[in-house]
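INFO  loader      accepted 1 record
INFO  loader      residues=166
INFO  predictor   begin
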Amino acid sequence: MARRHRLIRVGPSAVWDVLADGHRYAEWVVGTAQSEPARGKWPHKDAAIRFEVRLGPLRLTNETVVRRCEEGVCLELEAHAGVLGTARIAIELRPWGDHCLVIVDEHPLQGAGGRLHNVGFDALIQLRHRTMLARLARLCEDPARDAAHPAPARAAVPGVQGAGHA
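INFO  predictor   done
INFO  writer      dumping tokens
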């Protein structure tokens, strides 16, 4: 299990606004070239994002599904990576003074990633998380981000816990 954290110098709501925008997924997730909502209302439970991974001339299309969402607090995702299998990625937001402590916890669930999972694999995930959290911090801490990407509209969804972003 690879677990990493980073203090981002904005409040949790600013970090959540980036996480809750399915169109911005590729801006902070390492290895993702582009993303778009595939179904449901991101980041509500069972919503999905389709993303593309580019490996030289190859273009692989994969999907990430929301398994748990508690608005402004946590987002648990299941990333599907074809033959590599699936992985659980949990992102937790904790208020830390005027800032946000972001904790990412990832581990493989099924497929080759699950069978090959070891300490070395965790070390690679740690490196990926370091870069991913740095990207997320840049997006959240950049004051110009709000002008370029307004926060997603909030919409209440009856009966859906953690709902609030469309």
